[in-house]
Design brief:
The protein is α+β, with helices and mostly antiparallel strands. The protein folds into 2 domains: 152 residues, Protein Transport Mog1p, Chain A (3-Layer(aba) Sandwich); 135 residues, Protein Transport Mog1p, Chain A (3-Layer(aba) Sandwich), CATH 3.40.1000. 34% of the residues lie in helices and 22% in strands. The chain is built from 9 helices and 17 strands. Strands 10, 11, 12, 13, 14, 15, 16 and 17 form an 8-stranded antiparallel sheet that branches. Strands 1-2-3-9-8-7 form a 6-stranded antiparallel sheet. Helix 1 packs across helix 2 and helix 2 packs antiparallel against helix 6.
């Protein structure tokens, strides 16, 4: 979450500067709102100018938005160019970004990127660090559940949790589908196959025309560099017990100590991710699930067994109670907790946090 707000505003300023907009005073909250609109308007003008000369390597030219809507649902704006989907600042608009972002009003998203040349060398250079989760032969991929996917690729695989990679000759397309809880490898494979066909014949679309709306959308979302900002002392007192000492912040982690109703000292550690939460939720569940499976396999003879992850209903889009942490996500914000809190206490603690995030998004 480091410097998220600054990165978004810097992106806005960069886009505004491209059309030589006048400097504005950002001294008050009212002028800030005016500045955000002014920068977005200037960004729109700059994007329109840039779009007059189509970029042959614009990743947004590889898919028709309607094709993505068939997977994600209605989009909240035109696709736009941004950064690497694995970083917190990835969704920030970048007029020269290598990744095309598609997003809904509920912040579900898919990110698309491509390499037009030298993909073979790039793929070979990183393949040693990537797990090939599925077997693939020319034109066909078999998923772990036995499902067979057919495409025009020479090779296809899934890396990490949710990145579908398809190669054709010396070109490569990647569909990062972790930004939605429901998007499947089959759907990502279908999009990858469509994108491959357009590497040589791209659509008449510019990933710069959607920058203005994307920037406005990001600026309405809750933003804070302090993971502890979601709870006050009064909140903890009401929800759990009497706080003991100051909240401790370390990066995206917040540690809270309190005296519970049993008179004993307790603590919980929470990790807050306000961007790319869906992607982080799916990635963490896959990582920790694999870790627990390995531990259980090694400790079977000694009777060592970590508990299996369970899906839990509550004030979130999805949550998983696993052996490492309690992991939850809502509206692309992810909050995980490591503690001995009961499920009712977790619902109360995280319900308050997600309500605050939602209220912030409405300002």
């Amino acid at each position: 979450m480091k410097n998220k707000t600054l990165k978004i505003l810097m992106a806005a300023l960069l886009l505004a500067t491209m059309s030589a907009c006048k400097d504005k005073d950002a001294g008050s909250s009212e002028s800030d709102a005016v500045n955000a609109d002014g920068m977005a308007d200037s960004a729109d003008t700059a994007a329109a100018d840039l779009a007059k000369t189509p970029d042959p390597h614009d990743p947004c030219r590889l898919l028709d938005p309607k094709e993505v809507e068939a997977v994600l649902g209605p989009l909240a704006g035109a696709p736009y160019r941004g950064g690497n989907p694995n970083g917190d600042s990835g969704p920030t608009p970048d007029p020269e970004g290598d990744v095309c972002w598609y997003y809904t009003a509920e912040d579900k998203n898919i990110a698309v990127q491509a390499e037009w040349t030298d993909a073979g060398a790039i793929n070979a250079g990183v393949s040693a660090n990537l797990e090939k989760a599925e077997a693939a032969t020319k034109g066909m991929m078999k998923l772990q559940d036995g499902t067979e996917l057919v495409g025009d690729w020479d090779e296809a695989k899934i890396t990490g949790c949710c990145n579908f990679v398809a190669m054709q000759g010396d070109s490569m397309v990647e569909i990062e589908f972790g930004g939605s809880l429901t998007t499947t490898p089959e759907q990502a494979g279908g999009l990858a196959n469509k994108a491959l066909a357009r590497l040589s014949k791209p659509l008449d679309i510019s990933g710069q025309t959607g920058e203005k709306d994307a920037l406005k959308h990001l600026l309405t979302r809750y933003s804070s560099e302090d993971p502890c900002s979601l709870w006050s002392n009064a909140d903890i007192t009401r929800l759990l017990g009497t706080p003991k000492g100051d909240f401790e912040r370390s990066g995206d982690d917040c540690t809270v100590r309190y005296i519970g109703k049993d008179g004993q000292e307790h603590l919980f550690v929470t990790t807050v991710t306000l961007r790319n939460g869906y992607r982080g939720f799916r990635r963490d569940n896959a990582t920790y699930g694999g870790f627990a499976k390995s531990i259980n396999a090694m400790g079977a003879d000694e009777g060592v067994a970590l508990k299996e992850s369970k899906t839990i209903d509550g004030p979130w889009d999805a949550a998983s109670d696993g052996p490492i942490q309690f992991n939850s996500v809502k509206r692309d914000a992810q909050i995980s907790v490591r503690s001995n809190l009961s499920q009712d206490e977790l619902r109360a603690l995280l319900g308050h946090a997600y309500a605050k995030i939602a209220a912030g998004a409405q300002k």
